[in-house]
Design a protein that fits this description.
Oligomer: single chain
Distance between the termini: 14 Å
Number of strands: 0
Radius of gyration: 17 Å
Order of helices and strands: HHHH
Shape: elongated
Length: about 90
Amino acid sequence: MRKKFLKANYPAHYGKMLVHEELYPHCRIVQQQAQERFDGLMKHFVFTNPPPDKAVNGLAWASHMGMLKDKAEEIVRSELIYSESV
């Protein structure tokens, strides 16, 4: 996602990073940061807004966790993937 964002929005910077072999290391770093941020957000969201008991109501648990996952992914995308800092 980060690579596509840079290519579409910062083509000159994208090209420079590609030529200097900085693009893929940059994308790996962003991916690692995004995963760590996502994991931290999910732990925080589950702690502050606990899901229903999975054994009692699996459908409600899945729905709740899906909502938390979507929320965490949106935050990560806005903070890291689609960040204007290049």
